[in-house]
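User: what does the whole thing look like in 3D?
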Amino acid sequence: MTEGNILSVSNLKVTFNTHVILDGIRFDVRRDGTLAVIGPNGAGKTVLFRAILGLIPYEGTVEWAPDVRVGYVPQKLYVGKDIPLTVSEFFQFKENDSRKIAAVLTSVGLGEGESKDFHRGQRLLRTRLGVLSGGELQRVLIAFALLGKPNVLLFDEPTSGVDISGEETVYALIDKLKKEKDLTIIFISHELEVVYNYADTVLCLNKEQVCFGPPKQVVDKESLEALYGENVQVYRHQNQGGHHHGH
Amino acid sequence: MDIKLLLLITTGAFVGAASGYLGSFMVLKRMSLVGDALSHVALPGIAIALALGIDPLLGALVALTLAVIGIWYLGEHSEIYPEALVGVFFTASLAIGILVTPEPELLEALFGDLERIGYWDGLLTIVLAMLIFVVTRRISRRLLLGVVSEDLASSTGVNTSHVNFIYLLLVGVVVALGVKFVGTLLTGALVIVPAVAAKNLAKSINHFYVLASLIGVVSVAVGIVIAKFVSVPSGPAVVLVSIAIFILSYVLKNRN
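Assistant: Here's the predicted 3D structure for the full assembly of 503 residues, as structure tokens:
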């Protein structure tokens, strides 16, 4: 692996039964960089994450730097409202020290004393995981990922399930965390605006690798057509925020 | 009080606690009916053990272990959980079990018979139930994280396949222990009903585990006493007590 990189992926191929999900994926992630993975639904974005996390079998090589500690923030959790698992018990899967839990809650903006409601953090810890709002759950998942003191955070579509007013703040939060903690960020998104605003590198996927590089250079008409061109409706829907960037 | 009855109640309470505790994960994993189907596999095992003249508990344990390996394998190696296949396979084993179990032992194997539980059985059962508690406690966090999200569990270094296998083996053992008290037709209920009742009332996961175990204890103990004094088979008595607690929990839940 080249020095300065924290992840190096080459010739990655993933097949389910005989179905090729991903093929010919090759990219590097710079230490402290922010990589966005974009592509239409079914492009294999989540599969890429699961492969680099080692959760599914793949061909090719995925090489992490030796000192890597990965925190993973999944897209969603299927925790029913009826499941009596509290936020506090969820954190205890990873950490028993309540001060450490309080610290990560503070870094995701759910801590004590951040609002007029002084006991918000304590109350949240007693709340069931299944009844949290989309925004709260996402922050709890980010806090959970932060518990292992990771130097790489993988986010699977950070905005999904969060209301529009909340969307801005999740990316602002990611940005804030990055500035505070020496983090490399890899996130999946389908909103081009977010990619332009927060990522220094973009990987475009549509089963194969369509583009890789700085967003302003590699995201052009050609690559967008290769990503979304076959289905204009999807293209319009998924790029709502991106039109005024003039592509 | 009769010393034999006391031993029965104590042994039964241990089995009830272990079943309730394990059952709470089964309910969380949404595989309650797998637990039920699994219990039917004990019957052919018991029948074969009787035919060979060995301890029926051993036969049940072997049959259940094989079934657990089958369930675990299917769960790991298919894309969709093959619940229908499990249903077909296990009802088949129940049917075969009924045919091959000798007539005098059939009723006992199906519904449980307290008279057949001796001191050795009791002691062995208590030791195994305690072992189940200890092992389950050790894997409980990893198991539960796997229920919440398999990917999250794997990404934090949990071998979910391994943990699931240990868990299913424990379920197999607890079902084998329960067979003596409530019979192969109803041991599934001993695993499921206390946990479902506890879920109605639980405020947190730890609360849930404690309640499920307690309801298991009460169901078996009260069921045994009723069976003894009213002279009915212990299986239906125990299960109906647990069902009564379930109904009570449901009413209490809806009142809050």
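In plain terms: The beta strands of chain A are 5-16, 19-30, 34-38, 59-64, 70-73, 152-155, 184-189, 201-206, 208-213. Chain A touches chain B at residues 16, 50, 53-55, 70, 72, 74, 77-79, 82-86, 88-90, 92-94, 126, 129, 144, 148 (CB under 8 Å).
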